[in-house]
Model the fold of this input.
Amino acid sequence: MVGEIVINDIDPAIYSFWWALFNDTESLIKLIQDTPVNIESWVAQKEIINNSGSCNTTELGFAAFFLNRTNRSGIIQGGIIGGKKQDGKYLIDARYNKLGLISRVKRLAALKHRVRLHNLDALELIGLPQYQSRDALIYLDPPYYNKGSQLYRNHYNPEDHAKISEVVLGLETPWIVTYDNCPEIRELYTGAEVYEFSFHYSTHVKRPVAKEIMFHGNLMSHSPPSMRR
Done:
């Protein structure tokens, strides 16, 4: 059983969602319950994300949550499920079961006493003394190397990826890093233990080439790590 978990995200919108979940739970739940799941709401939440100076932390966090649930692949700056004409196979509310989402929010909020929340650059977080322990596990999920600027509001350039790899490979703390599977990232993590995976499999007998990759080090485990939804 994990005694404590640390959540960190440099994106103010993502951080605001976690802040609202743990510190303003009832207001977040009310927004989930009362906000219609339609194109008008999607446009309004998109406007909040793009002009976050005019809203409070909970409103910004909800906007990130709403777009995550109504956009394709959960990408904040991605396209809406079903398209703006809502003529696709799946529509805007395909992943927005209000009762189910509210139940999950309540379950997570009940664990707030075991969560630390930060809005820091990854290198700054890794450098904090309280997280440099053999009893801890650092899991990093940096922006993808390829198409990162299309997927994330806070993406990395090649130099940023190199800096992260240099620091991570020097850690004594157990660590895991996940990325898109590409030659540039493989080269940066040369020498680290590696595991390929994909969440999307073909219906054919032959499995597709893994699209994602996990590197890890200093793990005190008799079996390699694995990924599952």
